[in-house]
Structure formats: C-alpha cells, structure tokens
Amino acid sequence: MLCEDPESLANAAYFDHAAIIPLRPEALEAMCTLASDIGNPSSAHSVGRRARCHLEEARESIADNLGARPSEVIFVSSGTEADNLALKGMALQRAGQECHRLLLSAVEHHSVSDTAKWLSDYRHHYFGIDLDILPVDAEGRVLPDVVAERLNQDDVPLLLTVMAANNETGTVQPITELADLALSHDVPFHVDAVQAATHIPVDFSHPGITTMSVASQKIGGPTGVGVLLARRDAPLIPLFHGGGQERGLRPGTQNLLGIVGMAAALRSAIAQQHEETVRLVALRKRLIDGLHAAVDDVIINGPEEATCGADTPVLPGIVSATFPGCEGDALLMLLDGKDVSVSLGAACSAGVAQASEVLLAMGIPAQQARGTLRLSMGYTTTEEHIDTLLHALPQVVERARLAGLA
C-alpha cells in the first residue's frame, strides 16, 4: 500500500529539507484565507480587481524580502522554470551578437547545467555557442580569480551563471565578488538562489546580478510556484506566448493561491532567519560530531563548519556525508526502514548508481562519491531527530557494507 499512516509520517526523522520544506503554517493560513475569495487577476470586474490586489501585495512582499523592486518579480511555476527562462531567454535574445561562450560552474543544479547543454547543442549549429565550465576547489567553491581570467578573454561571454549555494554540499559561492566582475565586464549574470533563499541573506539589489531564481517549496511555501527576479533591462525574451502577464515574459493566469502562500512563507522565513540560523548551526555541529562518533571513517564533503554570519562558507542546514564501502541507495533504503528520510548525494540512472557530478568536480573519487548521503535540515528538525538518525546509523552502515559496492 503506497499511502503511509499519517501518524507514522509525523514521527519520522525528515532529513530532506533541501528537496522540499514542509509547508509553513503561515503559508497554509494565508492560502486558506484567500481560498474563498479568489478570481482571475486579469479580469476587469470587482472579483478580478480584488485578485489583482492580492497578487500585487504578494509581489511587493516578495520583492521587499529579496532586495528587489516589485516590477522585477516575475512569477513562474518553479525554480527550474525560472532557470530555464533566464538562461534560454538571455541566450536567445543575445543570439547573433559576438557572444559565443556560456560561463557556468561545474557544480550547478541540473536545471541550469542541462539547460546550458541544451543551448550548446541547439545553438552551436546556428551560432557556435560553447560551454565554458568553471572549475571549483576541493570544497566546491568557484574561484573569483578563475572567473576574472575567463571574463578577460577576447570573446565576450554570452552570460555567466553561478548558484548562490550548492544543493548537495551546501557550499556558499562568492556571489558579490562574481557580481562585481560581471558588472565590470558588462556580462549578464544569473544566480540560482533556490537553495540559498531564506537560509542566508539574499539580495538582488547588486547591479551586477541580472536575474535570480527562487522556488516556493524550498522556503516552506507550496509547490508549483517560483520567482524569477529580472532587472527591467535584462536581455530576456519569453519562452511561452499567449498573454501579457508578468511583463509578457511568462504569459498565463497566475497561480494566485500558491503565490500568496509563497509570499507568506518567505515573510515568515526572513523574520526568523537569524534565530533559525543560530539553531541550525548548533544542530549541524551536533549532527557532524555525532556522525564522526558513530562511524569512524565518515567523510564530510565541503566546508565542515557553518557560521551565523553572512559570510558563512556553507549553509547550516546541509551536510554531505560519505560512508566508504557503502552504496548510497542501500543506506537510504535501510534508513527509510527506520523512519529516517535522507537523500542521495548521487544521481541514479536506469537503476544504476552513479557518482554525483558535483562531488566529482570537487575531486572526490567516483567510488567514494557513490557512498554519499545528503542530510538536510530545516525549521522542523529537532535534536531528537538527529539522535534518531545517529542511533540507527552504525547498524545501517554495517549492513550496507556487508552488501558492498556493486
């Protein structure tokens, strides 16, 4: 039976906040309040005008919390769509100019890296576009000196895209320094802030950032909603056609309930950000110390110590841990049997475990990378959840090692 007992789910230790954060009560309340009074924001009658009012209030709230102007907030369906609109919209708009290189880091989310590969395959035939992959150091960080060197080449890049924080290791990138470089070279700069938003300060006001993506479900809002922040002068064209909504860049009737829920979730997350960061930093230390105590040879990938300041090297809610001699999917299933929900630091293709491209880019051997779990925490995580994981782990690792690496 696929449906689980709701009570058992409530008692589970959930370590997959990097995939989706449980809906915040504030978001649910905002959506329920609006549900009985919802219309099409594009309609001219009174119901439509009220809907438009709710939409614009949410837009203003989100803009205020992300350092943007309301006119720069474009509502979309997800962070993936936001990344696609940014990369394809700018690349296709700049087609035919003397721009042939798309600069991106080696550790981008697939919504960026796969879009870039598609652009390269599609546009290379017509325009000769090439992907210029930026390497990262052993902690998964892009080096500004390397970016400066690539920007100083004779051919001006089509655009630069680097995520604010990695979704597997939590490594935080030097976005302000990269934005300064992009601005000085007049190169559009897209920032995937899906994982970073609400966990660390995110500010779109830097003039060197052209576009930025944010997803509702990563901040405790409903799924099916995202935002692309786009400057008014961003060189963008729409991917869809058929309406004038969202500056004509994303036509279609807006998901008003989801948007209002996202705005409420973001307000709540930003209001609690400092207090929650302090709590998560302590929980992360408890988790990492416990991992070392439970499994002697566990390896923490990326920066090990998070801080409470804006200059933290890693998101406090993400720990990438490798267990040598284990397959990640075996660890996942064994922990799941003990009501502990985790995710892999590796992708699976056709049922065959493959090493994470992010970990490989950091110089981690493929066999080692295959035994990696991503343990991500959020506002629902407690010390008891961590203790549950740590109590189960030694036996789980032992059983996984007996199964061995395929």
TrEMBL record:
Gene3D superfamilies reported for this sequence: 1.10.260.50, Aspartate Aminotransferase, domain 1, Type I PLP-dependent aspartate aminotransferase-like (Major domain)
MF terms (GO), sorted A to Z: cysteine desulfurase activity; iron-sulfur cluster binding; metal ion binding
Keywords, sorted A to Z: Iron, Iron-sulfur, Metal-binding, Pyridoxal phosphate, Transferase
Pfam assignment, any one: Aminotran_5
SUPFAM superfamilies attached to this UniProt entry: PLP-dependent transferases
Species per Swiss-Prot/TrEMBL record: Lawsonella clevelandensis
Cofactor: pyridoxal 5'-phosphate
Family statement drawn from the similarity comment of this UniProt entry: Belongs to the class-V pyridoxal-phosphate-dependent aminotransferase family. NifS/IscS subfamily.
Positions of the Aminotransferase class V domain: 14-389
Catalytic activities: (sulfur carrier)-H + L-cysteine = (sulfur carrier)-SH + L-alanine
Entry annotated with the keyword Metal-binding: yes
Protein name as it appears in the record: Cysteine desulfurase NifS
